[in-house]
Structures are given as C-alpha cells and as structure tokens.
Amino acid sequence: MASQFAPEHRKPILVAPDESLTGSVVLGATIGNILEFYDFGTYTFFAIQIGQAFFPASDPFASLMLSLGTFGAGFVTRPIGAIVLGSYSDRVGRRPAMTASFAMMSAAILALAVTPSYETIGIGAPLLAIFARLVQGFALGGEVGPTTAYLMEAAPAEARGLAVSFQPASQQIAATAGALVGEMLSLAMTSEALDAYGWRIAFLLGAGTLPLGLWLRSALPETLHRPEASAPVVESAKRLRAVRRMMSLGLVILASCTIFTYITEYMTTYALNTLQVSAPLAFATTLVSNAVGIGAALLGGWLADRAGRRHIMIWPQVTALLMTYPVFWWIVESRSAIALLGGLGALTFIGTVPYSAFYVSMAEGLPKNIRGGAFATIYAFAIAIFGGTAQPIVTWLIHVTGNALAPAWYMLVASAAGFCAMLMMPETAPPRIQSAAHKRSPS
C-alpha cells in the first residue's frame, strides 16, 4: 500500500472539473445507487415475512433471528466486494465498477424474489436465500466507494458537498421507496396475502429496474482520468500517516453512522414486533423518517459547502445525542402515531445532517489513486461489523432485557463514538470555503 503514496512524477494540472457534469451525470450515478439500496434495504422491511417463508420455526423469535441472520450474511461479503470492485474502479474506472455492481445486485434480488419457500423445496430455500444475500453484499460493497468518488470528482470544488450528499440522500430515497412499497402493500393486501407473497412483489419491483439501471450507468462519462487541481506537495511518509489517520477516524464515524441508519430502518420490524402497532403505522414510521432523511442529507451537503465540513459534522451530532433517549422514551411510553412519526422523524433529520459533511470530507482526504477502493473498504468493514449486527443485537437486547428502550442504548453509544471521531477530523474544505466560514464565525 505504501507504494501507492510514492510521489507521482508529473506536472500539476490546474484544471477544475467541468461544471456541466454536475447535472444529469450526477443524477445518473445517484439513480443507480437508489435502485441498488432499494434492493438491499427492502429485506429489512419484510424480515418477519421472509423468516416465515424460508426459516419456519415454532418460536417466532427464532424465525425472526434466522431471517435477520441471513440479512447479516450479506454484510460478510461486503469487504470482499469493496476490495475487488473498489480497486477495479481505481485502476480501470468508476463507471465499469458501478455497472458491474448494479448488474450483480439485480440478479441476486431476482433470485431471492423467485426462490420457493421452505415448505416447497425444504433446506434448498434458506440456502438459496443466503447465497443471494452473499452476492448482494459483494455487489453493494463495491458500490459506495466508486460512487462517492465519482460524485466528488464530477463536481466543482465549491459544490462538492452538495454533490456528494446525493450519496447518503440516495440511500434515504431508496429506504423511503422500500417503505412506501411496504405501506402500499400493507394497505392493499390482507395480512395473510402479505405474508404469503406480498413481500415477493416488493423484490420483483426492484429486479425490474435492471434495464433502466444498466442504461443509466453505461451512459455516464468517466471521471477517473479527468484532471484534478494538484494538492500541495507533502512528504510521502507524512502523507501516509495522514491518510491512515483519516481512514481510522472514518471507520469509527461510519460505524456510528451505520448503526444509526440500520436502527432507524429497523423501526418497521420494531414497531410491529415490539410495540405491537398496526402494519400501516409501522411502515409509515420508516417511510416518514427516511423521507425527512433525504432533505437532511442534502441540507448537510449544502451547508458543508458554506460553513466547512467540521462544523456541520459536530453540532448536529451533539443535538442528536441529546435527543435520542427522550425520543425513544416518548415512543415507548405513548406508542402513538405522533411519537413514532414526529419524534423519530425529527431524530432522523438531525442525525442525518452530519454524515453528508463527513462523506465529502472523507473523499477529499483520500488520494485519487486509492479513493474508490479505500472509501469502499472502510465503508464495507464498518457496515459488515456494525451494520450487519445492529438489528440482531437490538432484537437480542430487547428479548433478554424485556426493555423496549434497548435500541436507544445502542444508538447512544454509537453516536457518542462517532462524535469523538468527528472532533478529531481535519477540515478538508477548499481554502475559499474555509475562509468564508471563518469570516462568518463569531471568533
């Protein structure tokens, strides 16, 4: 790895990115990301139904845990996909890596949608479901790094925050789409029909996007070999230490982010299984929280282009820390629509803002020749270790403690760790943005 940080013997090229790339091109990259995260995240919303289809058990808790364990299996192959496809994006290009990732994801989601139930083919059903999740994990592991690198490289320096914010925003859009599909199916179908085949419809809708996604990705121009403004000359050893520090802090922040994200996405299952609310309200909970997360992610990126990266990471994170326990206490005590929709929606909004600023800061802090692979690998390991275990851990905590506030405890610990890492992150915004933010500061 150290050889990748050796000085590159070439003349600096001081050419800014073409601003025309920040329109339809960024939209194309974002839509592909939306479609992939819809496919991957839909599993969360139908964990109970999938458990009944592939993992029947006399104990509903055991069936749910087996289903969530299969969901977690998709995180095992994420680091492998990140290393393979992320490195491929740094050597060959962002576009071919993103296209390959999308094709594998769509094939896997189609396989999961048409796999017969345990009652039909026996042990083959859970084995096929697990294989599909492993392929999905590999594909998605190689998606985030190249896409984030692409969005940053396609944008002018003064709009990188907003451009990169479409990465976390697209994940929220995907989650919203999945929750909306779940809400519509829960309203249109009986509980028996939803359990029997309704969840398959949601997966088939995702698989049906394969032609559109491939067309969008194949039309994207390549950014890997486009010139970037040269960075200041730094000794190789110092540069290596700085990058290692950035990657270490990024791992902690991404772990915090993924725990926050997957606990909020777990709220449909939590509302149904723990709070015992109606299915329409349970799906609406995730729908509303993810919908406000879209605006929060874009707002975070927009603010990062005006106030710098660190301020937009730190202060909203403090606010989210202070809000977490009171919001969950309100939800558990009242179990009302206003608490589930309003309280969780507000917490999601505040808690999502910091991560757009972090995404662009991380991308800016990594050298271009390792940007896609390094970002993808850090993200994948954080997701594999903490994202894949978040929902089973929360389910287990609720089961062994009998306390419905267990998700708040886990979220608080994760958010506190993320906050500490954010405090140590360097400011990576272009000098003009840093100067403007300093002038607006009271100090």
Automatic annotation (TrEMBL):
<dbReference type="InterPro" id="IPR051084">
    <property type="entry name" value="H+-coupled_symporters"/>
</dbReference>
<feature type="transmembrane region" description="Helical">
    <location>
        <begin position="246"/>
        <end position="263"/>
    </location>
</feature>
<keyword id="KW-0472">Membrane</keyword>
<feature type="transmembrane region" description="Helical">
    <location>
        <begin position="338"/>
        <end position="360"/>
    </location>
</feature>
<keyword id="KW-0813">Transport</keyword>
<comment type="similarity">
    <text>Belongs to the major facilitator superfamily. Metabolite:H+ Symporter (MHS) family (TC 2.A.1.6) family.</text>
</comment>
<keyword id="KW-0769">Symport</keyword>
<dbReference type="InterPro" id="IPR036259">
    <property type="entry name" value="MFS_trans_sf"/>
</dbReference>
<feature type="transmembrane region" description="Helical">
    <location>
        <begin position="314"/>
        <end position="332"/>
    </location>
</feature>
<feature type="domain" description="Major facilitator superfamily (MFS) profile">
    <location>
        <begin position="25"/>
        <end position="429"/>
    </location>
</feature>
<feature type="transmembrane region" description="Helical">
    <location>
        <begin position="64"/>
        <end position="85"/>
    </location>
</feature>
<keyword id="KW-1003">Cell membrane</keyword>
<feature type="transmembrane region" description="Helical">
    <location>
        <begin position="197"/>
        <end position="216"/>
    </location>
</feature>
<dbReference type="InterPro" id="IPR005829">
    <property type="entry name" value="Sugar_transporter_CS"/>
</dbReference>
<keyword id="KW-1133">Transmembrane helix</keyword>
<feature type="transmembrane region" description="Helical">
    <location>
        <begin position="404"/>
        <end position="425"/>
    </location>
</feature>
<protein>
    <submittedName>
        <fullName>MFS transporter</fullName>
    </submittedName>
</protein>
<dbReference type="GO" id="GO:0005886">
    <property type="term" value="C:plasma membrane"/>
</dbReference>
<dbReference type="InterPro" id="IPR011701">
    <property type="entry name" value="MFS"/>
</dbReference>
<dbReference type="InterPro" id="IPR020846">
    <property type="entry name" value="MFS_dom"/>
</dbReference>
<feature type="transmembrane region" description="Helical">
    <location>
        <begin position="283"/>
        <end position="302"/>
    </location>
</feature>
<feature type="transmembrane region" description="Helical">
    <location>
        <begin position="372"/>
        <end position="398"/>
    </location>
</feature>
<dbReference type="Pfam" id="PF07690">
    <property type="entry name" value="MFS_1"/>
</dbReference>
<dbReference type="GO" id="GO:0015293">
    <property type="term" value="F:symporter activity"/>
</dbReference>
<keyword id="KW-0812">Transmembrane</keyword>
